[in-house]
Design a protein that fits this description.
Largest sheet: 7 strands, mixed
Number of strands: 11
Strand content: 5-15%
Oligomer: single chain
Strand order of the largest sheet: 1-7-6-5-4-2-3
Distance between the termini: 76 Å
Bound molecules: pyridoxal-5'-phosphate
Number of helices: 14
Order of helices and strands: HHHHHEHHEHEHEHEEEHHEEHEEH
Length: 481
């Protein structure tokens, strides 16, 4: 059997150009339609079952036909987060430059495990820029590493903590860990619990501290928990604070927590997955100043840096500690003159070129551009709060931190809070979500179910927010009668 000269897997430059132009046209038409399209259109039952039972293709299909199928069966049924009327969770759209960067990154296809090629330097470059943006350029050593998102960034930070707090953990495992305790607030993200679990502490090792009326970790409750645990023979080792909770965007009292950690020799970890980017906004920056004192910080660039899913970054103050948390290169073989490999500082060996989309996005917008976008989202949340207060015979404002999340009720005048909570849940789940023009979710504040709107979208306008409130008020009236 003779081997064909050029595999059918390859495309000629001309074929590739045609294909890429077709794909670019699809992206452009998606962008053009965002203003009018519904945030979400349900996947038809027939399509759902077609995907779930699709047989493995035995022979190939022409790329243009595959694009056509994408256009017909995938593109029309998005999650919705590229729409200006999507307010759920913390899911932003990408800057249009991000999918372009993705194409270029995959075309070069480096592994950014380390070595001496351009992608490695691009990652070092963006990590420096990100450090400057979140205000930790002053860390003397300090090391950052890109990863898939906030969850993994938290795991990396807490793994460094574990390595510091448990002697010989990499050789001996967790035998020395019994009784160790880590503290977060009741509003801390579930990924902290997952991290504590997979790092082998066991979920019981994470103690959740009550929050104040603003959703911030309550310092008095924390002090009580620390003394109780010490009295019971347990060993507090770490505080995992939140800089922007997902529920209402609360920022824990980082200054006081940082002092407490210093006094009591606790590792100070900050989950900044949502809020860290607000460090570039002058009105919020003072609340995040204690980043400089943190031992580790998790950030998430696929949220407020708009680089597209997936990208997060972990930062650890003590570079040598982070390296010995993950490296399998023995000390005596480490070459301090050469640049250490990223794979020595994190979980993956082969690592994608995520840095390119971060590099292109930061160059595209600049610090000023990013500041404008993040400030704009915070301003839109303030606008939403203002409208809720102005329409107080239709709505009740429940909670809103200094960032861009607002929790509220649809509350026709005279209705009890409990009835309004039940009504709001029905409006969101039975009317707004299935209809699809808007997409938002519910949460709980102080035990009351409520609507939650998170604005992390540079396309959202005041008009979108007014239209959202109109729709909720209208559906509320319809469901009451
Ligand atoms: C999104 C988020 C996470 C988890 O990050 P992923 O990117 O989803 O892995 C953790 N903490 C907070 C506060 C978040 O907003």
């Amino acid at each position: 059997m003779s081997i064909p000269l050029r595999s059918s897997a390859d495309l000629s430059p001309e074929e590739f150009t045609n294909l890429a132009v077709s794909a670019a046209n699809l992206v452009a038409s998606h962008l053009a339609g965002l203003g009018d399209a519904k945030a979400r259109t349900a996947v038809p039952e027939s399509l759902r079952s077609a995907f779930l039972s699709a047989p493995l293709p035995v022979s190939g299909t022409a790329p243009q036909d595959i694009l056509n199928e994408f256009e017909k069966n995938i593109m029309p049924f998005p999650m919705g987060n590229t729409s200006p009327r999507f307010f759920a969770w913390v899911n932003s759209p990408p800057l249009p430059i991000a999918p372009v960067a993705d194409m270029l990154a995959t075309a070069m296809n480096p592994s950014v495990a380390g070595g001496d090629h351009a992608a490695v330097y691009v990652e070092h470059c963006v990590l420096n820029w990100l450090r400057e943006m979140i205000g930790i350029r002053s860390w003397k050593s300090g090391k950052g590493v890109l990863c898939s998102g906030g969850s993994v960034a938290n795991i990396i930070g807490l793994a460094a903590m574990r390595h510091k707090k448990i002697p010989n953990v990499r050789e001996e495992g967790m035998s020395g860990a019994s009784g160790m305790r880590i503290y977060t607030s009741t509003q801390g993200h579930s990924c902290l619990e997952k991290a504590v679990d997979i790092l082998g502490f066991g979920r019981k090792a994470l103690r959740k501290i009550a929050v104040d009326s603003q959703g911030r970790m309550d310092l008095a409750a924390l002090h009580t928990a620390l003394s109780e645990d010490r009295a019971a023979g347990l060993k507090p080792i770490c505080i995992a604070a939140s800089a922007g909770t997902v529920n209402a965007g609360a920022i824990d009292p980082l200054d006081q927590l940082s002092r407490l950690c210093q006094e009591q020799d606790l590792w100070f970890h900050i989950d900044g997955s949502y809020g860290a980017m607000a460090a570039i906004v002058p009105s919020v920056a003072p609340l995040l100043k204690a980043f400089e004192q943190a031992d580790s910080i998790a950030t998430d660039q696929h949220k407020w840096a708009y680089v597209g899913v997936e990208c997060g970054a972990a930062f650890v103050r003590d570079e040598a500690n982070l390296r010995s948390t993950f490296s399998l290169v023995p000390e005596y073989l480490r070459d301090d003159a050469a640049m250490a490999w990223f794979s020595e500082y994190s979980i993956q060996q082969t690592r994608g070129f995520r840095a390119l989309k971060v590099w292109m996005s930061i160059k595209h917008l600049g610090l000023e551009g990013y500041r404008t976008l993040v400030e704009r989202d915070i301003g839109l949340a303030a606008y939403l709060r203002k409208r809720l207060l102005e329409r107080k015979d239709e709505f009740e404002l429940l909670a809103s931190g200094p960032l861009s999340i607002v929790c509220f009720l649809c509350r026709p005048q005279g209705m009890s809070l409990e009835d309004a909570a039940r009504l709001t849940k029905r409006v969101v789940l039975e009317a707004i979500q299935p209809e699809g023009t808007f997409f938002l979710t519910t949460t709980e504040v102080g035990g009351l179910p409520c609507a939650r709107a998170c604005i992390v979208n540079f396309r959202t306008t005041e008009a979108d927010i007014d239209a959202l409130l109109d729709a909720i008020a209208r559906e509320g009236k319809r469901l009451v009668v």
